[in-house]
């Protein structure tokens, strides 16, 4: 299977000390790849580097055959790379509908943007009911749905998801994970899933990458990570 | 009673101009978290452009258009050429740079046009229409109120009904998320400055004919009044800016009408002080909701 996202020897960080050191990850098309690791392992920094919010000091990121160093942050969504940042990134001052429309504003074809919006409303029934509510009136689960839905309005090829389970009830987290699996199976969506919640991430992931102190320490199939007790004890702490 | 009625109408008309000017301050505050202390000077510069165009063409309206376009261009230039390069980590940096812009603009218009008052006429009669022996609004006051109402309606439509308005609001509230969603945040910021400066330019066009004339410092006191209006309404709230403008207009008109005619500068500062002491967030601020 070909890789839609290739991270080759990326080093990046804030100021002098790099957070990521020589990170290489290959994400096959149409899979869910879980990036696991403790706080401070560099997971969020990895996603920020992938979407260009942070410039790598070394290495390159190739998305769908294109070197992302040459692409502006604002253009990634047009190429099919959507990033749902940590803390969900719902614009709390805007309504649900405005948040969702924001995800499709880059489209030139208005009718298509409308269709993409309707698809998301069908996928997330609760959002339909709350379309005029302001973002700050939503529950944590609804916000996560909104952030996810807003990214899906772009019909991305690759979804970068930063800690979607953060602060959510286990039942809601399970729903989100089930949805990711459904999207992968139905639409061939590729997901790079950064999680601290190892169990739920591995429950849906095909591939697993473990990071520690800014480096990739294990890169293998999720099945192997689920099954290998020694590996789990050593790097994931359970 | 007649005096109260008459003063109320004058206050409304004056307040409408403060509303427009306060609205311009709020636009930039929401977009960039900067209080644009150069707004008065920028409006003066566009009024001088209008003066030149009107003088050359003998048309007030071409001058008005020149001020509007000049405002758009000047706003964009100040943002792209100056404010973008300011280190925003300390709020005082913006203030100092904005004051620097004031000095530069004032000096340049002074060099070109001189530092004396130039005649600056409005397009309509400023004598109040008499109704039952009481002087109410003048045709010019109606023009002012109508123009400000139009600005408010157009801005409200722009921000709530158009894709570019949605982009501008999103960029202001969540710049990073907006970029990830494909919004050109830097462009929206420039547009915000351009729009605000155009609104400020219209404010200048409306108020200068009611004062002594065009002068490099013609907008100084108007700026302080509008700043007070914006603070009264809460710098975050466009609706607050409009109501704050009317409120300040009324307070100033009543105090000059009932206390003394030359009390305006003191009254403005007292009002500003009271508001800052009692409710620094403004009466209509939505700051609390922003931190949820």
Provide structural commentary.
- Chain A: GO terms for molecular function: ATP binding; ATP hydrolysis activity; branched-chain amino acid transmembrane transporter activity.
- Chain A: Keywords: Amino-acid transport, ATP-binding, Nucleotide-binding, Transport.
- Chain A: This is ABC transporter ATP-binding protein.
- Chain A: InterPro entries: AAA+_ATPase, ABC_transporter-like_ATP-bd, ABC_transporter-like_CS, BCAA_Transport_ATP-bd_LivF, P-loop_NTPase.
- The complex is a heterodimer of chains A (238) and B (292).
- Chain A has 238 residues and is α/β, with parallel strands linked by helices.
- Chain A has one domain: Rossmann fold.
- Chain A contains 10 helices and 10 strands.
- Chain A is globular.
- Chain A starts with a strand and ends with a helix.
- Chain B starts with a helix and ends with a helix.
- A two-stranded antiparallel ribbon of chain B has the order 1-2.
- In chain B, a hairpin with a 2-residue loop joins strand 1 and strand 2.
- The radius of gyration of chain B is 19 Å and the shape is globular.
- Chain B has a single domain, classed as ABC transporter involved in vitamin B12 uptake, BtuC (Orthogonal Bundle), CATH 1.10.3470.
- Chain B is 73% helix and 1% strand.
- Classes of the chains: A alpha/beta (238), B mainly alpha (292).
- At the A-B interface, helix 2 and helix 3 of A face helix 6 and helix 7 of B.
Quick gist of this model?
The complex is a heterodimer of chains A (about 240) and B (about 290). With about 240 residues, chain A is of the alpha/beta class.
How are the secondary structure elements laid out?
The complex is a heterodimer of chains A (238) and B (292).
Chain A: E1 3-13, E2 18-28, E3 32-36, H1 43-50, E4 58-63, E5 66-67, H2 76-79, E6 81-84, H3 96-102, H4 110-123, H5 125-129, H6 140-152, E7 158-162, H7 170-187, E8 190-195, H8 198-204, E9 207-212, E10 215-221, H9 222-227, H10 229-236
Parallel strand pairs in A: 3-8, 3-9, 6-7, 7-8
Antiparallel strand pairs in A: 1-2, 1-4, 4-5, 9-10
Chain B: H1 2-32, H2 39-57, H3 60-81, H4 91-113, E1 130-131, E2 134-135, H5 139-161, H6 163-173, H7 175-180, H8 185-207, H9 220-233, H10 238-258, H11 264-278, H12 287-290
């Amino acid at each position: 299977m070909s890789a839609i996202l290739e991270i080759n020897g990326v080093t990046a960080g804030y100021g002098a000390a790099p957070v990521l050191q020589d990170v290489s990850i290959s994400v096959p098309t149409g899979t869910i790849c879980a990036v696991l690791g403790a706080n401070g392992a560099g997971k969020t920094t990895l996603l920020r580097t992938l979407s260009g919010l942070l410039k790598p000091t070394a290495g390159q990121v190739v998305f769908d055959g294109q070197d992302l160093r040459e692409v502006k942050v604002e253009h990634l969504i047009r190429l099919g790379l959507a990033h749902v940042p940590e803390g969900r990134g719902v614009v709390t001052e805007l309504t649900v509908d405005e948040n969702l429309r924001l995800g499709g504003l880059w489209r030139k074809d208005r009718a298509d943007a409308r269709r993409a919006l309707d698809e998301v409303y069908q996928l997330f029934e609760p959002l339909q009911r709350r379309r005029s509510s302001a973002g700050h009136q939503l529950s944590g689960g609804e916000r996560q749905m909104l952030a996810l839905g807003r990214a899906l309005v772009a019909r991305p090829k690759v979804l970068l998801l930063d800690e979607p389970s953060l602060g959510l009830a286990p039942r809601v987290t399970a729903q989100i994970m089930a949805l990711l699996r459904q999207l992968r199976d139905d639409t061939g969506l590729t997901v790079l899933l950064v999680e601290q919640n190892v169990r739920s991430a591995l429950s849906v992931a095909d591939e697993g990458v473990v990071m520690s102190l800014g480096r990739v320490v294990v890169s293998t199939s999720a099945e192997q990570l689920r099954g290998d007790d020694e590996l789990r004890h050593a790097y994931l702490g359970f | 009673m007649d005096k109260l009625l008459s003063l109320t109408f004058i206050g409304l008309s004056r307040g409408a101009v403060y509303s427009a000017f306060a609205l311009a301050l709020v636009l930039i505050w929401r977009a960039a978290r900067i209080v644009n202390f150069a707004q008065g000077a920028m409006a003066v510069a566009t009024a001088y452009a209008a003066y030149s165009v009107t003088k050359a063409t003998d048309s007030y309206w071409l001058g008005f258009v020149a001020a509007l376009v000049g405002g758009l261009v000047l706003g964009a230039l100040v943002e792209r050429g100056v404010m973008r390069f300011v280190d925003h980590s300390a709020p005082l940096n913006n203030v100092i740079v904005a004051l620097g812009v004031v000095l530069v603009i004032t000096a340049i218009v002074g060099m070109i046009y001189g530092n004396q008052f130039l005649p600056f006429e409005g397009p309509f009669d400023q004598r109040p229409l008499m109704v039952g022996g009481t002087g109410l609004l003048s045709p010019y006051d109606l023009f002012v109120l109508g123009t400000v109402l139009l600005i408010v309606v157009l801005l409200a439509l722009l921000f709530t009904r158009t894709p570019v308005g949605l982009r501008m609001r999103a960029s202001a509230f969540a710049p990073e998320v907006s970029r990830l969603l494909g919004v050109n945040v830097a462009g929206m910021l420039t547009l915000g400055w351009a729009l605000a400066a155009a609104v400020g330019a219209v404010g200048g066009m409306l108020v200068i004919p009611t004062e002594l004339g065009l002068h490099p410092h013609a907008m100084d006191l108007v700026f302080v009044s509008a700043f007070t209006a914006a603070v009264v309404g809460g710098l975050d709230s466009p609706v607050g800016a409009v109501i704050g403008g009317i409120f300040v207009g009324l307070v100033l008109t009543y105090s000059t009408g009932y206390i003394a005619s030359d009390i305006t500068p003191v009254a403005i500062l007292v009002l500003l002080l009271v508001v800052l002491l009692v409710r620094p967030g403004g009466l209509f601020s939505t700051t609390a909701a922003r931190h949820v």
